[in-house]
UniProtKB/TrEMBL annotation:
The lineage of its organism: Bacteria, Pseudomonadati, Pseudomonadota, Gammaproteobacteria, Oceanospirillales. Residues 472-499 form a coiled coil. It comes from Marinomonas communis. The keyword Signal does not apply. Belongs to the ABC1 family. UbiB subfamily. This is Probable protein kinase UbiB.
């Protein structure tokens, strides 16, 4: 409790120091806050020496690694943030002071149940790199293999959960007081952050992600994924093959190795679309710090990917709609784009398609004033999603991750090769993928996919056929019996209808005879004509009521 209170006071002090209160529009506060707290907050607002985005970045840096990580993730939400804030938060780096090597050693030994001397031939207690969630040490296994050991920061989960609670409190406050609260969806942003960062705390999940990505690109000349040493990997410790490559952002070093930059950029795009559409499993944290290049074959350079904590996936429906959206956009078929958004459920079913189409056209058409190679795929998606949000499009987390990754890949590709035409590179892939979703090849793939299950049920087919035939035979007998019963009822009804007119005439005649017989007065009916009344009632029964 005391720790939480201290942390809260530190956050409040940081908010005051960097004047983050300027994000709160005083004019929208309730009157009792506007003329009390609002007057205090308004002091000095016009004399601030730094803009709001810089002050926000500095505040997050001063609050430590958890808020730095939050700022990094927040910077990817360009669908929600103004450009100035997103650009400034993108400057946040994982340059976090490391914790001691002795403490890292204790964590490793606790997780693996043995001393580092028993596990490793050599272990460097000085970290190779330090990030907000974990740090990395180099080591050598007893077998002589060079590895890196990733260790989660001690007590970081407790700190994260405390900070997340405070972030929720701040998010709810912003949602209620800010004019942009509904559009920015601060509570949903914190929820995304909570999900992402808690996943990053589990290195066992990261190891599993790495293993799957490695299998997807096994024997590929596009991407290499380091080997995981499963015997030495736990929730808080992961041991992985040490890779040797050039950081992708080190352009001079790549040029020194005569790497073909055009091919390198195009291969990055191919890797992205292969992950998204062929594997349905993509690396969603592809910033330059996680990507290296193997320059051993300069004309066909290979990428090396690390840090698979954040991964994304799309289901078949999302992939199909996304591919069709992109193809329709580059054909300027905005009607199709609008219909696909409604059909996919990304916007409500009652959305007026003509109005949505017009809004999309107003955003996208100006892009075609540029050469095709200058059109940003990421900005296309961003423009589509921002326009759709005006029509109550719900946040699609899987699409946000995709957009973030595409922006990273596109920016990196054009940094490597400024003349990269992403459309020329991606269009054939998208068209080929779409063609594979229909036709004989797709049918054959489905048959291959279902064949094991069909084979498993094959021995049961004779029994199923016999059971089905028996059931159909019994059903046929019951239908025949019901048909005979219905036919009998029809015959009775027809006979009854044929006799009905004669019965009615007889009834009328009998009634007339009874009423006129001897002109008997009604008051003497009970005494004088009991016999006539009995005959009349008997006639009613025989002529009308009896079938």
């Amino acid at each position: 409790m005391w720790n939480s209170a201290t942390r809260f006071l530190r956050i409040v002090a940081t908010v005051i120091r960097y004047r983050l209160d300027t994000f709160i529009p005083i004019q929208l506060l309730p009157w009792y806050l506007k003329y009390s707290v609002g007057l205090v907050l308004s002091i000095g607002r016009k004399r601030l020496d730094k803009n709001r985005s810089t002050r926000l970045r500095l505040a997050l840096e001063s609050l430590g690694p958890i808020f730095v990580k939050f700022g990094q993730i927040l910077s990817t939400r360009r669908d929600l943030l103004p450009d100035d804030i997103a650009d400034e938060l993108a400057k946040l780096q994982d340059r976090v002071p490391p914790f001691s090597g002795e403490l890292a050693t204790l964590i490793i030994e606790k997780e693996l149940g043995a001393s580092v001397d028993e596990i490793f031939k050599a272990f460097d207690r000085k970290p190779l790199a330090s990030a907000s969630i974990a740090q990395v040490h180099t080591a050598t296994l007893k077998s002589g293999e060079e590895v890196v050991v990733k260790v989660i920061r001690p007590n970081i989960e407790k700190t994260i959960r405390q900070d997340i609670k405070l972030l929720y409190t701040l998010a709810h406050f912003v949602a209620k007081t800010s004019s942009d609260g509904r559009r920015l969806r601060p509570v949903e942003v914190v929820q995304d952050y909570e999900y992402t960062i808690l996943d990053e705390l589990d290195l066992a999940k990261e190891a599993a992600n790495t293993g799957l990505l490695q299998r997807n690109f096994e024997n590929s000349d596009l991407l290499y994924v380091p080997q995981i040493y499963w015997d030495y990997s736990r929730r808080n410790v992961m041991v992985m093959e040490r890779i040797s490559g050039i950081p992708v952002a080190d352009i001079p070093a790549l040029r020194d190795k005569n790497v073909n930059m055009k091919v390198l950029a195009e291969r990055g795009v191919e890797i992205f679309f292969t992950q998204v559409f062929s594997h349905s499993f993509f690396h969603a944290d592809m910033h330059p710090g996680n990507i290296f290049v193997d320059p051993s074959n300069p004309e066909k350079p290979k990428y090396i990917a690390i840090d698979c904590a954040i991964m994304g996936s799309l289901d078949d429906a999302d992939k199909n709609y996304l591919a069709r959206n992109l193809l329709a956009f580059f054909k300027r078929d905005y009607r199709m784009v609008a219909e696909l958004h409604v059909e996919s459920g990304w916007v409500p079913k009652g959305t007026p398609v003509h109005a949505f189409e017009s809004a999309i056209r107003s955003v996208c058409e100006p892009m075609f004033a540029k050469p095709l190679k200058e059109i940003s795929f990421g900005q296309v998606l961003l423009g589509l999603f921002q326009t759709a949000r005006r029509f109550n499009m719900e946040v699609q987390p899987q699409l946000v991750l995709l957009e973030k990754t595409l922006l990273n890949i596109e920016g990196l590709g054009r940094q490597l090769y400024p003349d990269l035409d992403l459309w020329v590179t991606a269009k054939p892939f998208l068209e080929r993928w779409m063609s594979e979703q229909v036709g004989p090849r797709r049918l054959l793939d489905e048959v291959k996919k279902q064949a094991p299950e069909w084979a498993a049920h094959l021995p049961q087919i004779p029994n199923l056929v016999f059971s089905t035939m028996t059931h159909l035979s019994q059903q046929e007998i019951r239908i025949q019996e019901q048909t005979q019963a219905l036919e009998q009822i029809r015959k009775e009804l027809r006979r009854s209808r044929r006799n009905q007119p004669f019965k009615l005439l007889g009834l009328l005649a009998l009634g007339a005879a009874w009423i006129t017989t001897d002109n008997i007065a009604l008051e003497h009916l009970a005494q004088a004509d009991i016999l006539s009344l009995a005959l009349f009632l008997g006639g009613v029964y025989l002529l009308v009521l009896k079938p």
